[in-house]
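User: Batch of two.

Assistant: Item 1 of 2:
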Amino acid sequence: MKAGHVVTIRINPRDCQSVLDVLDAAGVPRKALSFAQCVSLSLGSLLETARRNGLIPEPDEFEYLNRMSEYMTPDRRRKSARVADALHNLGGRLRSPALVGAEGPSAAPPSPANPPAVSEEEDSPEVRAAQERLTQLLIKKEQAEDGGPWSQEDERNFQQLYSIVYPNG
């Protein structure tokens, strides 16, 4: 038996490409690797980089069971799967947060001569707020399938927010 925790995750298209970029930057040859191995290696590389830069602590091997126990119960896995499904419905527009203080040594502070990098696909504050609220409603909708409340008002809000987040359907 191998050490560690086996997980199944969905990687959005933007991050799929970045997984390959991380491995290329680390000099890892990808020819004989499965994509799952690429994801595992790139995550490990990014975590090691964060440890070395002091952004996260070195893990204490004796704390593993204490810290991971809440993620090892069957009920938690079912609930997590429903939440993951709801988040997946947001598609490629969902962005993972960056680590605070992880800008790197080459990042110059924003100024009029050096504006902050903004992609053409950067969402407005209205769209980001709609994404957050839509995520909450998706989770509530998943819970409604298990007998939780789902009102006409929830459905109207859901449709309105969906049209904001996904204007092209």
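Item 2 of 2:
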Amino acid sequence: MKRSNSKKTQWLATGLALTTVAGVATVAYAANAKICFEAESATTISSPLRKVQAGANKKYSGKGFIDIPWDQNKTKGIGQATYKIKVKTPGSYHLWARTFWANGCGNSIEVLVNGSSRVLGEDGTYDNWHWVDTKVRVALKAGVNTIVLKNHETGVRIDQFYLTMDNDYVPTGIRKITS
């Protein structure tokens, strides 16, 4: 159990924090909920997005990854992959994706979380698997949530998605699948 004198916060065994502010008890979820799933585990995938499974010398997790093939953006905006994830702890999450950019013409992805659009990436890390985030939190409800990976730019690979309530956590390497 953790106590903080400034807000009189008590961490309960259930993972909830009970905070007393001006004599009124409020409940907030602890910042420890983490969800990780494979990009290739989509419930539906439409072309030109495709699931790729490669050989033994792999640097991705699981059985493969999602590829949005390079085509000089002729198919930009066409195709998507849809995921259904079950969430136990509702709240505000940071969304991360483990990605591989082929070049500067394809260095971002668009993700819809329960209908709300976010762009991840737009960084300068090429020819290497790395984590990118939205820098904006997304709302997840208890129960089933829908995440849609859209064809935002071509020449992109996506290996894993990671959601966390922890503001300070930055995933590295391949993460353990939770969902």
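Residues 97 and 161 are 4 Å apart (CA to CA).
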